[in-house]
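Next up, a specimen:

>
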Amino acid sequence: MVLRTHKLGEADRIVTLLSRRRGQIRAVAKGVRRTASKLGARLEPFMVVDLQCYEGKNLDTVTQVEIIGPYGAAISDQYDSFTVANVICETALKLTDEEPAGNQYLLLVGALRSLANREHQPQMILNSYLLRSLSIAGWAPNFAECTTCNEPGPHPAFYVQTGGVVCQSCLTPAAAIIGKDATVLLAALLAGDWEIVEKASDAVKLSASGIVSAYTQWHIDKGLKSINHLERE
């Protein structure tokens, strides 16, 4: 999956990709910015490709590219999808390295495919992706029971610092009051239960989005720059 590209010299690009077995890969794509290049359009962000590289000391060199998932054009045509995809790719960059990242890779491809096909609202796809990618990274949120007394939920408040909901009895000033409906929605986003997600009201979705954003920014080092460009309804 192509995560991002950077210009190099007059005609080349450095491409950062996420692979299933090798984690992040940084490679030079020579001549791809020339009009006659056949590889340029294949190495745009949000594209799933089959890549052949010559391994170098610091950077690999791209020798052959075949498109597997042409999601770039469909995502880039819609501003809301484009901004969401940028947040998704930046998150993948933050949560992976050069180690194998099979689960993160599969989650990333699934999210961008769903985004390209407009299967659900872009913001909800993003929320689900963020919660699940953080869970894979070891920061799984708890929406089931109170993180203080273990009382079964749903509960009306979420404490970002501890990553879980709190009941009315254990409520502290630091917890965010979101309501039980938002808690149910957040649990559905984490589980991928889209039937529940689609039934939620706009107000509940907005509340849940705020919690997902705050929780993500809390755990990811230096935060996500691209999240500031999202459209807020």
Remarks:
- The first strand starts at residue 2 and ends at 8.
- The chain has a mean pLDDT of 93.
- The chain has two domains: 2-70, 74-229.
